[in-house]
């Protein structure tokens, strides 16, 4: 029996990477035949009301390697089609649900609980459960400990892992060191096994052997050194920015083409690109996805700017956040769309990268000159660098309309390598 349990769905960047790594592990890295595998996607009736939700799941499964032609969707409305129950699927994917007990009730009413259980236990289907789908694999009494409003009596789930509690979105301390009442303590101590599945770690179970699945790449791939690049304020699709910032382009199509080509010329397919805001302007998500897909780099991360839409539930960028700190071979880098006057560990040499201000090269040059002009601290006889000026605008207008590599930044700021990179 093979199960993959995560907190995040496949359409979310963390969930996608965890599920990909779990499949690689279960398939011993031989996953070239995924396009031939058949997948059944099951979701509750609420998910179908969320615009683009199911399509996002299908697109992400397709990105994993599954063919859309081999993906079947069942949305729990009415009884299960007898044609579905007569088939055998290689993978069964049960995703998020706002109410796990409503999901269970809908699966019971559609006569699908037994079908899923038999498919996984008897016919060898690999079960992928995310969020509520993960909890469904264990004892549903665990939902009471997570604050879910539960019916009485609590119904049975899939019973794939009897006497086992699965807690998605939680680290152990939130339960173990929480304020459980006596009834909750009795429930908690009744389980033989307990899996806490945080957003950063999933669980892959192969014939009762459980393996933690992180969002990072597998060890062999992690050993390869990935180059890192930064950019900001591309404003793809924004015709007026050409005049506002005196950009050397005849029209918006030329600007889009040149900016993307400059990225592709510098950033490799397996490198890492951080866009510190304002990737585009005034275009819908489908247009943004089309522009992103013209960039060859597979690892494009967005630190959102004031002109970016909410892409957190989309499959456009590898990650989306408002603010990010990363540890690099050159120390800590703070990534934000806006320039900060002070930032974490700035006094001890961390680097602040930003966009937003659409500066020219003069801004960066002045900061670099002041950085190493330095100052004399009170009581010291030697001049030291003013580390709080390790700040740099990575926007395209300040960098010849090209991304900036971390090695170039290290050269400009005279940074030295300290330790291995940690995301």
Task: Give a structural overview.
The protein has about 425 residues and is α/β, with parallel strands linked by helices. It has two domains: about 1-220, Class I glutamine amidotransferase (GATase) domain (Rossmann fold, 3-Layer(aba) Sandwich); about 225-415, Purple Acid Phosphatase, chain A, domain 2 (4-Layer Sandwich). It is built from 15 helices and 18 strands. Strands 3-2-4-5-1-8-9 form a seven-stranded mixed beta sheet, with helices on both faces. The protein has a five-stranded mixed beta sheet with strand order 13-12-11-10-18. The longest helix has 15 residues, at about 250-265. The radius of gyration is 25 Å and the shape is elongated. It starts with a strand and ends in a 10-residue tail after the last helix. Residues about 215-225 and about 420-423 have low confidence and may be disordered.
Structural features:
Rossmann fold; Purple Acid Phosphatase, chain A, domain 2; elongated; alpha/beta; 19% strand; 2 domains; 423 residues; 7-stranded mixed β-sheet; 15 helices; single chain; disordered C terminus
The CATH class assignment of the largest domain is Alpha Beta
Q: How large, in whole angstroms, is the Cα Rg? A: 25 Å
Oligomer: single chain
The number of domains: 2
At a glance:
The protein has 423 residues and is α/β, with parallel strands linked by helices. The chain contains 15 helices and 18 strands.
SSE layout and pairings?
Layout: E1 2-6, H1 13-26, E2 39-42, H2 53-64, E3 71-74, H3 82-85, E4 91-94, H4 100-109, H5 113-121, E5 126-130, H6 132-135, H7 142-145, E6 164-168, H8 173-176, H9 182-189, E7 193-197, E8 201-206, E9 209-214, H10 219-222, E10 228-231, H11 240-244, H12 252-266, E11 272-275, H13 285-293, E12 299-303, E13 319-321, E14 323-328, E15 331-336, E16 351-354, H14 361-373, E17 391-393, E18 404-405, H15 406-413
Parallel strand pairs: 1-5, 2-3, 2-4, 4-5, 6-7, 10-11, 11-12, 12-13, 15-16, 16-17
Antiparallel strand pairs: 1-8, 8-9, 10-18, 14-15
């Amino acid at each position: 029996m093979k199960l993959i349990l995560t907190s995040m769905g496949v359409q979310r960047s963390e969930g996608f990477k965890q599920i990909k790594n779990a499949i690689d592990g279960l398939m011993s890295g031989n996953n070239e035949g995924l396009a031939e595998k058949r997948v059944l996607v099951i979701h509750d009736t609420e998910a179908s009301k969320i615009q683009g939700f199911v399509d996002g799941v299908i697109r992400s499964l397709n990105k994993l390697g599954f063919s859309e032609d081999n993906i079947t969707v069942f949305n729990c409305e009415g009884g299960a089609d007898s044609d579905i129950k007569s088939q055998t699927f290689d993978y069964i994917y049960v995703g998020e649900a706002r109410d796990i007990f409503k999901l269970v009730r809908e699966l019971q009413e559609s006569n699908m609980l037994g079908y899923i259980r038999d498919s996984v236990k008897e016919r060898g289907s690999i079960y992928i459960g995310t969020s509520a789908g993960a909890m469904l694999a264990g004892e549903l009494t665990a939902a009471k400990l997570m604050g879910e409003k539960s019916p009485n009596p609590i119904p049975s789930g899939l019973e794939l892992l009897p006497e086992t509690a699965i807690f998605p979105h939680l680290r152990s301390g939130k339960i173990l060191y929480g304020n459980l009442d006596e009834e909750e303590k009795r429930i908690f101590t009744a389980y033989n096994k307990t899996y806490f599945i945080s957003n950063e770690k999933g669980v892959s179970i192969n014939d009762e052997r459980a393996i933690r699945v992180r969002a990072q790449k597998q060890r062999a791939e992690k050993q390869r050194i990935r180059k890192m690049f930064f950019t900001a304020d591309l404003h793809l699709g924004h015709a007026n920015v050409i005049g506002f910032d005196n950009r050397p382009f005849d029209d918006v199509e030329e600007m889009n083409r040149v900016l993307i080509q400059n990225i592709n010329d510098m950033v490799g397919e397996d490198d890492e690109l951080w866009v510190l805001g304002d990737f585009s302007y005034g275009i819908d998500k489908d247009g943004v996805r089309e522009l992103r897909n013209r960039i060859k780099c597979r690892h494009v991360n967005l630190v959102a700017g004031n002109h970016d839409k909410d892409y957190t539930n989309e499959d456009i960028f590898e990650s989306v956040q408002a603010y990010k700190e990363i540890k690099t071979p050159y120390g800590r880098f703070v990534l934000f769309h806006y320039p900060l006057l002070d930032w974490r560990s700035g006094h001890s040499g961390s680097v602040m990268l930003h966009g937003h201000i659409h500066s020219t090269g003069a801004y960066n040059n002045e900061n670099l000159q002041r950085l190493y002009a330095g100052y004399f601290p009170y009581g010291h006889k030697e001049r030291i660098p003013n580390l709080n000026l390790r700040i740099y605008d990575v926007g395209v207008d300040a960098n010849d309309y090209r991304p900036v590599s971390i090695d170039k930044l290290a050269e400009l700021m005279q940074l030295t390598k300290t330790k291995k990179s940690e995301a």
